[in-house]
Amino acid sequence: MNKELQNLLNEQLTSWEMAQKNYDALKRVRVKEVEVNGCLYKVQFNPARIVSSAAKVDSKSIQERKCFLCPDHLPPMQKGIPFGDHYQILVNPFPIFPSHLTVPELQHVDQRILYRFADMLDLADCAEDYIVFYNGPQCGASAPDHMHFQAGSKGFLPIEQEWKEKRAEKIITNEAATLWALDDSPRTTLLIESESKEAAVTLFNAVYGAMNLKSGEEEPMINVLAWKERGKQIVCIFPRARHRPACYMAQGDTNILISPASVDMGGVFITPLEKDFEKITANDIADILSEVCLKPADFRALIERIKQRS
Q1: CA-CA distance, 187 to 293, in Å (whole number)?
Q2: Dist CA 100 CA 86 (whole Å)
Q3: CA–CA separation, 103 vs 151, rounded Å?
Q4: Topology of the domain comprising 2-165+188-309
Q5: Coil/strand/helix, residue 98
Q6: pLDDT tops 80 at residue 55
């Protein structure tokens, strides 16, 4: 499928002016690097991403706008290719990655991962040049009312290179798969390393079932990355404690417009405003991660619940 996806991108960048403009701009984005507790984080100044970072995802705002992922509401220039029985693959016109895809469900159904995680692995299996990601409805999804995955070029997120050396604790292991806790605080990361889709799904379900569900929410707060590496399924699960950090709503000099999602959790922080790109430091990133990820005691409690359920 990689060739089909490249052909789709090439066609859309030829025929769709907005996508062409934003992909051209991506070649000129500014990037800087910082280190947080031995982990590399990149900061990307990407003005086009203001659409996502500043998205209003409250119920009232969602009800008042047309869903931009429904087939009937797509721009006439936006073309896709089918995936499975009920998804289509689209070029994301507001890219972070050199090749950035959105994979929405054809039907207008809420953003939920539990019974679709196997679909995510199938997508990672078919699109081996890509890393696939899922943003929970309160964890960076700008369309929490419409089920979708995204995918971006492999080799872009620092965690792809770091996960092996950060494996710290075996939580569950069997013949085909292992669930690890990574040593990458203040981020709280669980990682599945699996030789089969079925074993990966079993471990994911164990994690999901052990996570706390907040009052009024229908899904635990979660970001997920998945990719194929040397024949194995690699999955990063980021349990979340908070949607947006305090600096997102702060006034004056302390304001930083960052709404962390899977890409940020994977090590690339997206700043749509230049003032934030200029001033953000490693300490800011550590503070943001400390706020939106689980506290150490809560992460340990989650690990123990997973062990008890296995």
Answers
A1: 6
A2: 20
A3: 8
A4: HIT family, subunit A (3.30.428)
A5: coil
A6: no
